[in-house]
Amino acid sequence: MRNILFTGLLITILSLSSCSMIFWAYVRNISNDTALIDVYLLDKSDWRTLPNQIKTAHEAVSFKAGYTKRFDSYTNVTWVDTAHFKVMLPPNTTLDLNDLAGMFYNGGSTKDILVVITTQSRLDTLLKGRYEFLKEPHLFKTVGTFKPFFYKPVLVYDVR
Can you give the pTM of this predicted structure? Predict the structure, then answer.
């Protein structure tokens, strides 16, 4: 009986570890300068609808339980052409990157896009293509109570 329970537990753990995990991604401007986010759609066939607005929190959100309540307004995007749009990110503001780039599975975007963030002193490439997320400059957090099963993996890029 003990061997059967151990085998069942082992199979459950192995099957759960191979599942795809949905990540939530955000861009947080903690500097005193306005940042410009350029988004280039490399393959528009992935999109059912193109974004016109992005969920915004007018504060530098600390990602703790209940942080989604902070995203209570929207920021309009400015379309440059059919495959390129821009978003201004004011100081002390946080944007929902899922609205820009679609869902993130296992830490990478499912859409084929290029995201570039420009400030007065820096130029960063945040995303460059499908399933590629540059993890080095990003903060990875888990938000929730009981880890590893009931939590929300969050990717945060801080504009400094």
Answer: 0.75
